[in-house]
Amino acid sequence: MYIILVYDINLEEKEGQKVLRNVFKICKKYLVHIQNSTFEGELLETQLLRLSKELEKHIRKEKDSVIVFKSRNEKWLEKQFLGKVEDDITDNFL
Predict the structure, then answer these.
(1) Residue 71 has what pLDDT?
(2) Which of 23, 28, 33, 80 is the most exposed place for a label (fewest CB within 10 A)?
(3) Is the pLDDT of residue 34 over 70?
(4) How far apart are the first and last CA of the chain?
């Protein structure tokens, strides 16, 4: 399935920087970083489950959020770019 993942980590406390680093590293293992706190890519259901379990260990449920958008296939998703776009960095899949 095709995944777009976005996160919002509360940085008001010092602990937030550590959470942010961990969440970024975990997402980077499974998906392609496309913009700030946004990742995308193709994952199997088992990979998505592992990703979710890893993230749950680090995010603070009362302060942070992760949203996962799922689609059967990337071709069912239309992308529109606004502003500065030099290359479509989101189009790097075989």
Answers:
(1) 87
(2) 80
(3) yes
(4) 15
